[in-house]
Amino acid sequence: MTISYKQRLFFYFVVIFTVFAGGVFFFEQSRERHYKTVALEERLDACAAFVDAALQRSTDVESPEAMPTASLLALLPATVRLTILDLQGRVLFDNAVTEPARMENHARRPEIVAARETGKGRDIRISASNHREYLYYAKQYSRYYIRVALPYDIQLRRFLQADRLFLYYLAALFAVVLCIMNIVAGRFGKSIKQLRDFTLSIEHPGVRGVRPPPFPPDELGEIGAKIAEHYRTLEESRKVIVLEREKLLQHVHSSEEGICFFSATHAVEFYNGLFIQYLNTITDTAGIDPAGILTDPAFAPINAFLQHREPPDSYFETQIDRQGKIFTVRINVFDDAGFEISINDVTTPEKTRRLKQEMTGNITHELRTPVTGIRGCLETILEHPLSPEKRDYFIRRAYHQVLALSELIRDMSLITKMEGAPQSFRLEAVGVRALLDDLKNDLEIPLREKQIDLTYSVADGVVVKGNRNLLYAVFRNLTDNVIRYAGSAVTVSVQMYREDQDFYYFSYADNGPGIPDEQHLNRLFERFYRISEGRTRDTGGSGLGLSIVKNAVAFHKGTIVAKNKAGGGLEFLFTLQKKGG
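Below the sequence we write its predicted structure tokens.
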């Protein structure tokens, strides 16, 4: 059972006041008893003095017959017992005994011993001669002891007993003080109880926004009001922290990087699902324990940083290549020695960066060739005397290099436009068969020179809603690729072999030599990729034709793949969306 603060305080008050009142009562009782005893002793002392005065007139004190017994007893109250003893303790006279000479020596009686030492003494005991209880008072004189005794009966006891009026007064005062103590304890207890109830209510799970009670205008009330004020401040701060924490958790869960928070003792505090996914991709064993990152050999640089870190070092970053992917791993150490580890899949941006770097090198390389050729031709014409035929030859060579440079710039501009501003291309209904007719007419001369037979099996009703120039570029670049690399006496076949609700399916195939090394097939559509660098230089071309084809097909929501035909030659399979790009 729990004792309330009011009960405890009231109990302390009662104990303190009881001890105080009890001390006062017993002190007063003992003093009053002492005063009554002293008064009684004074009366007995007066009796002894009367007896001594009478004895002084007697000639022979040691003879009982010579003592004035009648006159002595007349001086004393009837209840007084008078005993006269010599200095050796022999009883000379005792009015309560008929033969005092037969009484034993009283030298060792307590009151006689005290009288011998201090001149007077007293004692309460039962008499050995008549077996009655007496209050004895003895006083020593020059020749004898005079002992006066009163029966220690009820009347004497009542006389020596302290007055009970003070006890009644003290009991009434005690009751009044108890009531006052109860009221005071209640006032103190009420403040404490209000503060306790308020504290318990705000600590109860699920209870928020508790209004504090009206505290009394005293010191405890001020303390309670301050606690309530601090509670309101903490409650507002808690709401802000909870809101910010929810935002942070939502951000972490929706983040595109894996994040895990660790305490200063390397205990896992929080992580998102992407962290586990990346961790299982990098490590050799699958698991769901994020703490595995601190022991796996793949993250040795991270562990080395944590073990050998010296303040103020708080950041470390490294890259890990695993399973064909590139991951950036970062660690941030906080002020409390806790830390955060984040894993980010940078495969796409890293490949893009490398591709841009490679593309920049390729562009530089591709531009250098025609520019160098043009410069060489012009320097030859300007610095050397040439015949008209030679001069015309170098001018024509420079002209062809300018055409190659112009073609390269045009193709680069087309690819950039398809990737950066596809909305700038105008869409229209394009008949594929009419497009192939125009292509065949445009390439009639180079096709005849290479003895290439271009055939196509496409119905007149095959219409694609797209950009005519881009669709033309698809078939034109594929045909240019055949003219440059397939050799002579080659047959090219274009056919639409399937259609569904959304797409047309096309096959563009030749019966040329194909690509013997099939590892080049997946890279044919890369910019400036060349199977044979020397052969490409001889045959011309910007190196962007098939890249334009892939981007143009993608613009029309299609896909394209290249493969070697079973009977020889190269085949491109691609789709074009019917409803436009």
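The longest helix spans residues 5-56.
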